[in-house]
Amino acid sequence: MMEILVYLFENYLPDTCPPAGVLAKKLSAAGFETDDISAALSWMDGLAVGHQTSCDLPAAGSIRIYDEEEQDRLSVECRGFISFLEQCAAIDAPLRESIIERALALPDDEISLDRFKIVVLAMIWRTRHEVDALILEELLAEEVDEADLDIGEHVTRILLN
């Protein structure tokens, strides 16, 4: 599924992404498996819904408390990374909550930092959120998990082009 997300970042602007039925055919023609396509399209449906979630802006000095499921599934590195993004003003509270919601929508029991970064990129891509180039560089700074090796290379190429 993550490979499909990276493929979409590489080949489409958010506003030019075709409807789900057409996109599924294009992804199938590109060689992706039907199950992965269905999972990715279902996950992407939540991008628009997730970002529309209303969230009050936190008071100055407040901190985000993670519930038990969030702590179990989002590694310390993921939680630290999202805190870093928020402290750098790269994301706001509503976008943070959308990122967390979409990360928890992944089937992984525990989400690695590299997969989490792809979720962050997906939200930035989908919402067309402006992010400083140094933050984008930080999104790519960590070592890539063996399972995500190809994905990291694609994301690097996409963001540097």
Structure description:
- The protein is mainly α and 161 residues long.
- It has one domain (2-56, 66-160).
- The chain contains 9 helices and no strands.
- The radius of gyration is 15 Å and the shape is globular.
Short synopsis of the structure:
This protein is mainly α. The chain has helices at residues 2-11, 20-29, 34-51, 68-73, 76-87, 93-104, 113-127, 133-139, 149-160.
Structural class: mainly alpha
How many DSSP-defined strands?
A: 0
User: What's the number of structural domains?
Assistant: 1
Fraction of helical residues: 55-70%
Low-confidence stretches: 156-161
Number of helices: 9
Largest sheet: none
In round numbers, the mean pLDDT is 80
Distance between the termini: 23 Å
| β-strand amount | under 5%
Order of helices and strands: HHHHHHHHH
Kindly provide the radius of gyration, computed on alpha-carbon positions and rounded to a whole number of angstroms: 15 Å
- Assign an overall shape: globular
